[in-house]
Amino acid sequence: MNVVEMDNLKKKLDEIDIKLLDTLNERAKLVKEMIHHKKLQGLPAFDPVREREMLNHIAKNNQGPFAAETLQHIFKEIYKAGLELGENDNRKALLVSRRKKAEDTIVQVNKDSIGDGKQRLIAGPCSVESYEQTAKVAERLKEHGLTLLRGGAFKPRTSPYDFQGLGLDGLKILKRIADEYQLSVISEIVSPNDIETAEAYVDVIQIGARNMQNFELLKEAGQSRKPILLKRGLAATIEEFMNAAEYIISSGNENIILCERGIRTYERATRNTLDITAVPILKQETHLPVFVDVTHSTGRRDLLQPAAKAAMAVGADGLMAEVHPDPAVALSDQAQQMDLEQFDHFVSILKNFGLHTNKNE
Ligand SMILES: O=C(O)C(=O)C[C@]1(C(=O)O)C=C[C@@H](O)C=C1
């Protein structure tokens, strides 16, 4: 075969490819329509009996040179791709998705516009243990020009014998400190019954990793007037995380901050594995601000700074980190909280990296 003949053959193949392409897309449109109607009627999209009949039909009509099994394999992939088209459409249509709302959601927390492009830090002790302990941290935040204080009052602990938090008294301490130091406070709520009470004391309600799929809590948070910081579950996929946020938004509350906090993997060098690419994925797929909790994702003080830099580099809207005046005597998370000096160092390094504070406004 000479070069010209070869070129002609290539041209024919190109033409056939375009025909196949058009046919596949034409087919996909019909499948989408079919799946849409199946869903409206409450029927499952996947129909194995019908697929078996269709594959038999392909084999019966095959005149070669392809073997029937080869063609059946190709057609099975086509059916599968059609089903995935239906699934993707479903996900893209979520209220938290960019498809529904292209522009970034900005969550207003007093004077802070979370998600406005400035990278902020939420810091504070793991647990509120006393007024004095939390006030010491608040004072340091204030000195640095930081405005967002975290502190746990209701503590979901792995062991029922570990410190469970001060509960309502803890929230009262946070409120007092917020007023005295003009800070916004963030605290975790674990029961739907406490959401309304919490509104009087905190500026942002946190839903923790262990409760990411506590659907009753998510629905109640959706009815709250307060912004919600939703942490990713320890073994949750990004899709499950987005669906958890969807529970909140579909119940009426659009003020959601997503927080990646590491996922459980086989790796034991860190407490959890920081899924750093979750940040740009969530930024692309949703319109919500995304934070990274560097304390829980690493569980190691020596890794807080590199993890924070990585989070800022991939476009996180902010960070969360734990700091305690005397971590050695802390009632929770002794190994991972920074002391005040370490915190000073952490903040000054990150300020050079672009961290926003009132002092560099
Ligand atoms: O024929 C149907 O019932 C369809 O929904 C279409 C279709 C297909 O791609 O052909 C899609 C999914 C089903 O599992 C079987 C067939």
Automatic annotation (TrEMBL):
Domain Chorismate mutase: 1-90
Domain of life: Bacteria
EC identifiers of the protein: 2.5.1.54, 5.4.99.5
Pfam family, one: CM_2
InterPro entries documented for this protein: Aldolase_TIM, Chorismate_II_sf, Chorismate_mutase_GmP-bac, Class-I_DAHP_synthase, CM_dom_sf, CM_II_prokaryot, DAHP1/KDSA, DAHP_syn_2
Keywords: Isomerase, Transferase
Gene Ontology MF terms in the entry: 3-deoxy-7-phosphoheptulonate synthase activity; chorismate mutase activity
Protein name: 3-deoxy-7-phosphoheptulonate synthase/chorismate mutase
